[in-house]
Amino acid sequence: MAISEESRHHLYQRLEQVLGPKEATVLMEHLPPVGWADVATKRDLDALETRVDMRFDRIDDRFARIDDRFARIDEQFGRIDEQFGRIDEQFGRIDEQFGRIDEQFGRIDERFTEVDRRLDTLDVQMRSGFAEVNRRFDETFREFRSLLVSVMSVMAVLFAAMMGAVVAAIKI
After folding, report:
1. How far apart are CA 27 and CA 17, in angstroms?
2. What is the distance between the alpha carbons of residues 117 and 140, in angstroms, rounded to a whole number?
3. Span 157-162, mean pLDDT?
4. What φ, ψ does residue 39 adopt, rounded to 5°?
5. Residue 83 is part of which domain span?
6. Is-contact 15 24, C-beta < 8 A?
């Protein structure tokens, strides 16, 4: 027979009539809140403890396996760190090589700058030389023209004189 709240209430009322309210309350507080089937015994608690211990043992085993996995993962990370260290060393050597290449390009740039400066100087000298050649050519050409005009004038005078001598010789 299952104990219900209604049956517990009737029991309390009867105990109150027989024992009085204070004694009925004390006695009812010593009864379990539900039926005796729901009350745990020491054997029940021991069995529960055994089951809980077994579960904790399985959990401990799982944590041990997880710890092993983490240890292996830590080893792998250690190897990865070593590989990254080697890669960093290689990048360091590459950086050094790029530094030397940059220095070489710097020297090449300096040489190009010097060549540009020399070409600029040569260009100025050539322009100056061409200007001087043009000036001398113009001066020589003016002198030649003046001389040519003088020679042509002398020839014209000589031609005229010869013509006059020819005409005079014909008249004679």
Report:
1. 13
2. 34
3. 90
4. -85, 130
5. 40-171
6. yes
Domain check: are 45 and 28 in the same one? Answer: no
pTM: 0.41
3-state SS assignment for residue 161: helix
Q: pLDDT tens across 160-172, in order?
A: 889 888 888 888 7
| Number of domains observed in the structure of the chain | 2
What is the tens place of the pLDDT at every residue in 1-44?
567 788 888 988 998 999 999 998 998 888 776 666 667 789 98
Look-up of token digits 């009867």: 14
Same domain, 6 and 18: yes
Are 61 and 141 in a shared domain?
Answer: yes
Q: Do 84 and 161 fall within a single domain? A: yes
Structure tokens at 73: 């993962």
